[in-house]
Amino acid sequence: MFNVEDIRKDFPILSRKVNGKPLMYFDNAATSQTPQQVINTLVEYYSNYNANIHRGVHTLSQEATDLYEQARQKIQKHFNAKFSHEIIFTSGTTHGINLIANGFSSLLKKEDEIIVSALEHHSNIVPWQMLCEQTGAVLKVIPMDEDGTLIMSVFDELLSEKTKLVFVNHISNALGTINPIEYIIENAHKAGAAVLIDGAQSSPHIKPDVQKLDVDFYVASAHKMCGPTGVGMLYGKEEWLKKLPPYQGGGEMIAEVTFEKTTYAELPHKFEAGTPNIAGGITFGAAIDYMNGIGFDHIASYENELLEYATEKLLQIEGLKIYGTTKEKTAVISFNLEGIHPYDVGTILDKLGIAVRTGHHCAQPIMDFYKIPGTVRASFAFYNTKAEIDALIEGVKKAKMMLS
Ligand SMILES: *Cc1c(COP(=O)(O)O)cnc(C)c1O
Fold it and tell me: Domain 4-30+295-403 - what CATH class?
């Protein structure tokens, strides 16, 4: 059923060499690789269907519009939204978060509160700081524990009738921690607050059900789900999307324009000003098809196997410390070698054809918590193998030898 060697054949990039060595790609939390089927969709679009959408009476424009709207429906079905107009195409997770932050600027008043978590990506911190500056609202933070989990008892204490909005990522990109979003959503709702979940890290591993979660907003990026860069999705409950003002003005998002007054288009177009990333949206749909073809159950169980295998082997290296040690985590391993800068480890691994990420992973507050400048992060996908992990272990040992 799940055969990693067959799957690897779908990814042309996996057969290239880097520095004379076969590429071993462990930077999947930053962006995932793209299978040939998905690349084909992009090529096919530009070869056969390229036209602007929604406005044209000609055949090409209608075909492009149909493909784009079909992709929206695929995304709707995948995330189990009630309506396709609850899916807004964005340029990615960051755009989706900013769209919501901007929307709330007219709904918040002084001393209202927004809760975020200590495990957030910078894209999930800065927009709320800007929103607070604009509105006088106050930002509260759910702190984290040594093992990289959020301290839920403090979350309970932070919640009050002042809380208007709670934002957490489903999975931390820096540590791989899976956050208890069911609990967070349920209790935020009891306090009368709305919840936005950043699904950038979870959507490549878990198939979320936005209706079952009862989440108000959920955002993700195609490029972390075997899709193209520059496109993503925002799910919002219909009632919320109707309530929020548009983010940008322009073509496509209006119903009628006069110099006295403009009325806005119906959902989802109200939030989709200008010519969107049509090719990207259609290709995003193909990426979702591809991942569902493999099956998220298979993906999750295989990646978990890789995680356990790599964790056990890495911990056998003396002086190696893993950050984020909870059982509730995905296949992301953040680590350091004692006394060695992560950047130096990453540079040696790169010479061996091994791609890892080094640094603060856009999550500086987490690094501050551990009092470290950054980590080496290896993040696995379903197309990685145990043989590659063996090579990673050997590479880390070599780096340790050379640097200590
Ligand atoms: C990657 C990532 C983002 C930002 O996604 P973009 O595609 O760069 O907009 C936000 N949050 C998390 C948890 C991420 O992993």
Answer: alpha beta
